[in-house]
Design a protein that fits this description.
With 667 residues, the chain is an alpha/beta fold. 60% of the residues lie in helices and 9% in strands. The strands form two sheets. It has a six-stranded mixed beta sheet with strand order 6-7-8-3-9-10, with helices on both faces. The chain has a four-stranded antiparallel beta sheet with strand order 2-1-4-5, with helices on one face. The two termini are 39 Å apart.
């Protein structure tokens, strides 16, 4: 089965390609960041007041030094000396306490904003369609939630506070310096352009470096996620690829190291340049100021105080220049997070969607056509967030990736822009139809068996019933309601599904069962487990229902995992059951017991089962024979045998052997 384009296309090529777009700190971006700060307005106001207070306090020490040199010491004024000494102790104490409060406020605001951002991002990912996850590496999503969000956190807790603090300190310091001597103040400001000019170049360089660094970390996280989970680790060991994977990981680690070293060195050279500029300004002021002192233009205390303020002038200038660079780097993280938030949600409630009450369970497919590569470039273009160019549809993996436009015959037509306006992509996915004009109806309470060769489209049909995907064309209806007109929550409550690949959380059996019904009692849990023929096994475990099943349930056998999954669906008590090869991993005895348990469960409910066992097929009210995306036959077992078509051939080659084996086992 094909779940999406190969070569990294689809949704993820949209995100990855967008990383390459030239980023800009725009007013819209800042406004969007500000929306997350709005709930914290009161604390932000207190933070600003704290910053202003701290900036004013830090202006006092040079004035104390001036008074000490010009008055207390020359006049031998002991009382004045004592007061100045106490002031020199009190000022850092008050400033330190103020800093503690300021840090608490900024951390509460910053961590709160990031928690809100992380929740929004996680919620948006949960709303994305199955198509998105089949085309996305889990590790890359983890990187978006962790590395990118942490980078955004620095913008809030450090960079923005630094900008505000430095700006106020700069203004306040200039006011006092002008009051001391306007000539030296102008001299100190002459070198100001030397701070600004290099920051632009360095800002662009560091911004690109940070983007590359986040991207490399994302790729490294993706590899760790794939090779350090149970399934990945097992595959590596079975094929003896530990050395190869270690070398591959080492390559990622080395690239992350190299980009980190480059970032550090660019930053270090930048600080060296800022330090030289500050030293030049300080030397000029001391030279001219010293000359004025020698000419008795002003006192020694004044030049000492002025020199102290000079440090407080250049420090915020350097901080503001550096903050501009830091801010540009931090905005990269916000942009990457917003790229994910701006991804259009493919499967969502329509305006005015109705809640599906307790369903009867009638299912109808009305001329359903479906392709796993449903969305073309033009369709994605209409759903792109405002301001994102169409060029972001070009991916990196395997060259430029574009979704072609289908022609009227289901083939690939010319690109809508025509001609040679865009380079020919190295990879153009074909538009593969998994279902082609499927029509059938399952009455409420019926058991329908889906039969057909591998890759015929059986699993695709089961995916459309709970609306994991929407049809490319046509409709899927339950009780006469188009699924696109029904709320997703109400639809989910009506359908229970055991998928082809059983998945259990790394938690207890009880928690895994309660996932179907959070308020289920112990009696209800045990009743469901008995129905799935798993209760006796669980009861014999040392911790019983509190036994940890391990990563993806690997501490259980395939059959045990499958029975736990079936018990979970039984506990949900849905109106429609979808069993995707639900008993394929069970031995004959366990399968027979589960089939017996499922019979009363299926009574009065609609059940759709992908059948590979003859017992299921014989019990079915209707058999749908699927081949190459079409329903080629439908009817009962006897009717289909009489037609001597595909079903009859499958029966003779597959199911009859199963029947003979079962008969011999009973004897």
């Amino acid at each position: 089965m094909m779940h999406g384009p190969a070569g990294g296309g689809g949704w993820w090529s949209f995100v990855r390609a967008n990383d390459d777009a030239q980023p800009h700190v725009t007013r819209d971006l800042l406004r969007r960041v500000a929306t997350y700060a709005r709930p914290y307005t009161f604390r932000i106001t207190l933070t600003l007041l704290s910053i202003f207070a701290s900036s004013l306090i830090e202006l006092a020490p040079p004035l104390l030094f001036r008074d000490l040199i010009d008055h207390a010491l020359p006049n031998k004024d002991l009382a004045r000396l004592n007061l100045l000494a106490l002031g020199m102790i009190a000022i850092p104490l008050v400033d330190g306490l103020n800093g503690v409060g300021q840090r608490w406020l900024t951390s509460r605001v910053g961590e709160g904003i990031i928690a809100d951002l992380r929740r929004s991002l996680y919620a948006h990912m949960q709303r994305m369609s199955l198509r998105f996850f089949t085309n996305t590496k889990t590790g890359e999503l983890m990187s978006r939630l962790n590395n990118d969000v942490v980078g955004a956190q620095r913008a809030v807790t450090n960079t923005l506070v630094s900008i505000i603090t430095s700006a106020f300190q700069l203004v306040a310091t200039l006011v006092i310096m002008l009051s001391l001597d306007w000539r030296l103040t102008l001299l100190a400001l002459i070198i100001f352009p030397l701070f600004i000019l290099p920051s632009r170049r360095v800002g662009r360089i560091l911004r690109d470096i940070v983007n590359q660094q986040l991207d490399l970390n994302m790729q490294m996280n993706a590899m760790m996620s794939e090779t350090l989970n149970v399934s990945g680790a097992l595959l590596v060991k079975l094929f003896g690829r530990q050395k190869d994977e270690t070398e591959k990981f080492g390559g990622y680690a080395n690239r992350v190291r190299d980009i980190g070293v480059r970032q550090a060195m660019v930053g270090r050279w930048f600080f060296l340049l800022l330090g030289l500029v500050s030293a030049l300004g300080t030397a000029m002021v001391w030279w001219v100021g010293g000359y004025l002192v020698l000419q008795n233009a002003f006192t020694i205390g004044t030049i000492v105080a002025f020199a102290a303020y000079l440090t407080q002038l250049y420090a915020p200038i350097s901080s503001l220049v550096n903050a501009r660079v830091d801010f540009a780097q931090s905005m990269v993280s916000f942009e990457r997070v917003f790229q994910m938030l701006d991804l259009p949600v493919e499967i969502q409630d329509r305006p005015g969607a109705v809640a599906l009450a307790r369903a009867r369970g009638e299912i109808r497919f009305d001329n359903v056509i479906f392709s796993y590569m449903e969305q073309t470039a033009d369709e994605l273009d209409t759903s792109l967030p405002a301001g994102i160019p169409r060029s972001v549809l070009s991916g990196r993996s395997g060259g430029s990736v574009r979704f072609p436009t289908p022609d009227g015959n289901g083939g690939l037509g010319a690109h809508p822009n025509g001609g040679d306006k865009e380079p020919t992509p190295l990879f153009v996915p074909t538009r593969r139809y998994a279902l082609r004009g499927v029509n059938f109806e399952i009455q409420a309470g019926q058991l329908a068996a889906l039969v057909g060769p591998s890759g015929a489209g059986k699993t695709t049909i089961t995916y459309l019933i709970p609306r994991l995907y929407d049809p490319t064309e046509g409709r899927v209806l339950i009780d006469g309601h188009d699924l696109r007109d029904v709320t997703l929550d109400s639809l989910s409550r009506q359908i229970g599904m055991v998928t082809q690949e059983t998945y259990l959380f790394h938690d207890t059996i009880r928690v895994n069962l309660l996932y179907a019904k959070l308020d289920a009692t112990q009696a209800e849990i045990e009743r469901a487990a008995r129905a799935a023929n798993i209760h006796d096994f669980i009861s014999k475990l040392p911790q019983g229902y509190d036994t940890i099943v391990g990563e993806r349930g690997y501490r259980l056998s395939g059959g045990e995992k499958q029975r736990v999954a079936i018990a979970r669906v039984i506990l949900k008590d849905p109106r429609i059951l979808v069993l995707d090869e639900a008993t394929s991993n069970l031995d004959s005895e366990s399968e027979a017991l589960i089939q017996a348990a499922l019979k009363p469960l299926m009574k009065g409910r609609t059940s759709v089962v992908i059948a590979h066992r003859l017992s299921t097929i014989l019990a079915a009210d209707v058999i749908l024979v699927i081949d190459d995306g079409h329903v080629v036959e439908q009817g009962t077992h006897a009717e289909l045998l009489a037609r001597d078509g595909l079903y009859a051939r499958l029966y003779r080659t597959q199911f009859k052997a199963s029947e003979e084996y079962s008969a011999s086992s009973e004897q």
